Amino acid sequence: MKQYTVAIVGATGAVGTQMLQCLEEQEFPVGELKLLASPRSAGKKVETPWGEVVIEAAAPECFDGVDIVLGAAEDDVAKALYPEAVHRGAVVVDNSHAFRLDEGVPLVVPEINAGDIASHHGIIANPNCATIIGLVPTWPLHQLAGVKRMIVSTYQAASGAGMPGMLELEAQIGAMGRGEEMPTPRAFAAQLASNLIPQIGGEKFEGFTSEEMKLQNEGRKIMHLPELRVNCTCVRVPVLRSHSESITLEFERDITPEQAREALAAAPGVKLVDDLEAESAHDRWPMPLDTSDQDLIYVGRVRRDISNPEALRGITFWCCGDQIRKGAATNAVQIAKLLTE
Amino acid sequence: MKQYTVAIVGATGAVGTQMLQCLEEQEFPVGELKLLASPRSAGKKVETPWGEVVIEAAAPECFDGVDIVLGAAEDDVAKALYPEAVHRGAVVVDNSHAFRLDEGVPLVVPEINAGDIASHHGIIANPNCATIIGLVPTWPLHQLAGVKRMIVSTYQAASGAGMPGMLELEAQIGAMGRGEEMPTPRAFAAQLASNLIPQIGGEKFEGFTSEEMKLQNEGRKIMHLPELRVNCTCVRVPVLRSHSESITLEFERDITPEQAREALAAAPGVKLVDDLEAESAHDRWPMPLDTSDQDLIYVGRVRRDISNPEALRGITFWCCGDQIRKGAATNAVQIAKLLTE
Q: Where is the Semialdehyde dehydrogenase NAD-binding domain (chains A, B) (predicted)?
């Protein structure tokens, strides 16, 4: 079997570290591994399943001989480096926002539009975390009844702001628990512990934030639905690494909650947990704690949208998924894996 | 000025204790104060602005000579005791769910339907906390454009489960902060710290819970809108005492976000906090920490529902309010105050 030279950019961050673990878990045919990061981290040694790797400062020449780049760096790094990687013959799976909406750049959730990968010109974009987690369960329902409108309220974990976000929430909970003074918030605009912050991203369109518009703009591209309308409200919650979403869908055709549940139970990447009568709370509905550090999107609370004037044209549900894994690293490595098949 | 003999039932709980404080803050003309609770608390002494009061075990004869009862007890206590209180000539403002939907029992949010109080037959019901917090800002928008549909996702605080809920969340955060073993959850079905629990109340209708159906059933009665359709998802979040709600409204007539903001800024009981560009996070949008232990509903993130097929028929917003105060005690004392005027 062909072995690939793989480079992870942003290898020391929350997503980069997870990508390394996902390569092993998904049995990716790694021949040689390169770990790239900022100059600050260069020279550090990392034990990997493919031997000890010395972190290099990310630069164009690092990509010589690289087959696949997994990008876990910010937009500016992505814009500066990945065209250089492509120029040197690599294919880049990029988790940043830099190229997601560019023509000629497939934006891929493997459960939904794996076929789009074929049309790449060197860069394939990984969608935003909240987009992936919301769309994986929306897709099988769309296939049944044709989704035309989504109303989404998110409950997003600290990990969406990377390692600094998680460390800040842990430090705040630590201070509360020990009765110490609350450290000044830096990763977030305000204290997150025992609080909610109803803004993620800057203002983008009519008071909606960049994060809120991603679900519509990325969703349209991924599901090939240019007319899809999405109203999203993104809220940061004091949870470590699983995003949750309360989603209401409107459809072109009738769909019953039973049909929806059946489709979700059979859908790839989805685990249906929907039984209010279950003895254990873990079997009643998805919760962030139960969905952390695993790869599926858990879906529950599936019911008819009783507010929709057309009786069977709306479905409401609740879903949770690990933000660092399926929201980022897992999805990127899945795309990379498809490139090798 | 006439002075009233007031009894608080459930005086030792989170809401009962807050009612006592609200009586003082709202300068209620208390002549004599009676504090009633379970036999377990009987005999305890409480310092009040009206002197030291000895807690009595709640029983029908306690209501002899009482003018106004503030009820902060559970449904079963309410059903057993309040008809007895009415029989003895008292008017009861009840925070339980026992009588809310009964004919002849006004269900009142003073900012919305104070006029309904006049039709009481001894019992006036205080709505559910999430209902009050969601409807106070919905009402001025309804007056402008006629609301016909609400899609609501809640972010509900631990205090909704009373003092035991708050103590449990604090104990869990304490254990996390000190690195100790997590105590077994009792007030909630699962660990709430660093987690979300997407069920409040038992199953009521087509998979919606009792808590979720309250917003529709109580909302219809309070706003005199028997056709109002509400799709609500209730979620418990690790926040101490302020509920938050992400609300999308559909209207009969056109309404712009500017008109909505103007109406909210002028509405009684509402504080508009809606400026993504504000220097301080506290001036950008409402947060639970900023809205705890005060009486207003803070509203922000007011914007056009860009998913509504009719351009100006939808508004989306975010609101927060203290669950124990305006969600319960403050609203009840406001109703009682209107009874004296």
A: 5-120
